[in-house]
Design goal:
The chain is mainly alpha-helical and 159 residues long. The chain folds into two domains: 44 residues, no CATH class; 70 residues. Helices cover 67% and strands 0% of the residues. The longest helix is centred in the C-terminal third of the chain and has 32 residues. It comes from Dyadobacter fermentans.
């Protein structure tokens, strides 16, 4: 590297903070160039000065005051989560029941309809999934309609 070509600020800062990882060409240039070595010394002095500055501490604690002013959390999603959990559990139990029924072979010889039962279970699980998906998509829309600032609560605004 030519002495007339100075290093960038990023290269000088990397060398100032960690001289071992800056590269041989950069270290050689800094050793030979008084301009770049002066900038390295400046950045090292700045880094030492920043590490000495103590953290600012306050003599009062605002945590309790701020937490007291925050609005209480609304638990509006509990019924939806319970509904989704119930539908999912019914689906899982139905699948387990059909699997056990088909593998035990108790009534399999009498009925001989294992494929119909399998398709029925798959349809029930698909229906449960679609119902859950429909419920979760439309609950937010219904809530937005029932907000007090919507048009249906202002009789003069209705067309």
């Amino acid at each position: 590297m030519n002495i007339a070509d100075h290093l960038s600020d990023i290269e000088i800062q990397q060398h100032a903070l960690d001289a071992g990882n800056s590269g041989m060409a950069a270290a050689t240039h800094i050793a030979q160039c008084p301009h770049c070595s002066g900038r390295v010394a400046f950045y090292q002095k700045m880094a030492r000065g920043m590490s000495v500055v103590p953290m600012e501490e306050f003599d009062f604690n605002l945590t309790k005051t701020v937490l007291a002013q925050l609005p209480a959390r609304k638990r509006s999603h509990a019924p939806e989560r319970a509904f989704i959990a119930c539908v999912s559990l019914v689906g899982v139990f139905a699948a387990i029941g059909v699997f056990c029924y088909l593998n035990t072979g108790l009534l399999n010889d009498l009925l001989g309809k294992s494929d119909v039962i399998s398709y029925g279970t798959a349809c029930c699980l698909l229906f449960a999934f679609l119902l859950t998906n429909l419920w979760s998509e439309n609950v937010g829309k219904i809530r937005r309609i029932n907000l007090p600032e919507s048009l249906q609560h202002f009789p003069g605004a209705a067309v």
